TrEMBL record:
<dbReference type="InterPro" id="IPR045735">
    <property type="entry name" value="Spore_III_AA_AAA+_ATPase"/>
</dbReference>
<dbReference type="InterPro" id="IPR003593">
    <property type="entry name" value="AAA+_ATPase"/>
</dbReference>
<dbReference type="InterPro" id="IPR027417">
    <property type="entry name" value="P-loop_NTPase"/>
</dbReference>
<keyword id="KW-0547">Nucleotide-binding</keyword>
<dbReference type="Pfam" id="PF19568">
    <property type="entry name" value="Spore_III_AA"/>
</dbReference>
<protein>
    <submittedName>
        <fullName>Stage III sporulation protein AA</fullName>
    </submittedName>
</protein>
<keyword id="KW-0067">ATP-binding</keyword>
<feature type="domain" description="AAA+ ATPase">
    <location>
        <begin position="152"/>
        <end position="301"/>
    </location>
</feature>
<dbReference type="GO" id="GO:0005524">
    <property type="term" value="F:ATP binding"/>
</dbReference>
<dbReference type="InterPro" id="IPR014217">
    <property type="entry name" value="Spore_III_AA"/>
</dbReference>
């Protein structure tokens, strides 16, 4: 994956470092962070490291390779195919999605409109390449909790801190629901994916880069709340899937969906069920018992560690041994 999809968008000097890094680092890579005049940093399942001039993972700041302004500029040129203007909408959001569904976050100087909203970015100095990993079967460990005795799908909220696998899990749920693999009594469903950040399906030019099922329709780069309503009106989904809810508009759209007879599976940032329940914007979803399943993930034993499963009343259906968080 890194050789064919990531290396081509890296500046030559950093490409050489990444290509020389040990195979275990490349296969467990989660992020590559490039900051101008700072050490090149990689995040793996085992933790974070800097890369030395030979591409070896180290902890020492003093011995690490430091990205130059040219490294950053060349990487931006490769990411945007030397046309920042053509990518202005992506730059306004602060990220671009490249082949393979990998999301690249960008930071620099924000250029504002007269009304004070972000128009674009310039003087980009920080790049974060997040490696998207498709794991078919990621939902196998939880799908027993997603359906009732007759195969009826539960409205479900997946809760986890960042980089704990919730997007990977949602992606595989979409695939299995779409292809009729979630439950013997549940046929393949029409699935609508609202992918505001282009991570779930990883679309490039509207084409999903991940396997999300034969009956799945994707609305890419669209705000979640508006996108869910658009999907209901135009694509008649049986299941809506979206990532990282948290605003009042998201809450209202989810209520509209479930009251229209559409099942919803979504995710939210948080460590615990109680932490997410107390967020003011979505508290009413808990009070009205919109979700009948809550799945809590962590990174305790690596991404996709299942910590607990709870029903609509907060009753525990599964809990991993040991203290968490």
């Amino acid at each position: 994956m890194i050789e064919h999809q990531i290396l081509p968008v890296l500046a030559p000097a950093i490409r050489k470092l990444a290509a020389r890094s040990p195979q275990p680092v490349r296969t467990s890579l989660e992020e590559i962070r490039i900051r101008q005049e700072q050490p090149v940093q990689v995040y793996t399942h085992q933790g974070d490291y800097f890369l030395d001039p030979d591409g070896q993972p180290i902890r020492s700041l003093n011995k690490a390779y430091r990205a130059t302004g040219e490294d950053v500029a060349q990487t931006v040129q490769l990411l945007t195919r030397s046309s920042l203007y053509a990518w202005e909408e992506e730059l306004r959001r602060g990220y671009v999605t490249i082949a393979g569904g990998h999301r690249v976050g960008l930071a620099g100087k924000a250029v504002l409109t007269p009304l004070g909203s972000v128009q674009t970015l310039k003087h980009i100095s920080c790049i974060n390449i997040r490696i998207a990993r498709e794991i078919q079967g990621a939902a196998d460990g939880v799908k027993q909790f997603l359906t009732g005795m007759e195969g009826k799908l539960h409205n479900t909220l997946i809760i986890s801190p960042p980089q704990s696998g919730k997007t990977t899990l949602l992606r595989d749920i979409a695939r299995q629901a779409s292809d009729g693999l979630l439950h013997p009594g549940l046929r393949g469903m029409k699935v609508g994916v609202v992918d505001e950040r282009s991570e779930l399906a990883g679309c490039v030019n509207g084409i999903p880069q991940h396997s999300i099922g034969a009956r799945t329709d994707v609305l890419d780069a669209c705000p979640k709340a508006e996108g869910m309503l658009m999907m209901i009106r135009s694509m008649s989904p049986q299941l809506l899937i979206t990532d990282e809810i948290g605003r009042e508009q998201d809450r209202d759209a989810i209520l509209e969906a479930v009251h229209s007879g559409v099942a919803v599976i979504a995710s939210a940032h948080g460590l615990t069920l109680s932490e997410v329940r107390n967020r003011p914007a979505i508290r009413s979803l808990f009070e009205e018992k919109v979700f009948s399943r809550y799945i809590v993930l962590s990174r305790r034993n690596g991404p996709l560690t299942l910590e607990g499963v709870y029903d609509k009343d907060g009753q525990c259906l599964f809990k991993r041994e040991g203290r968490y968080p």
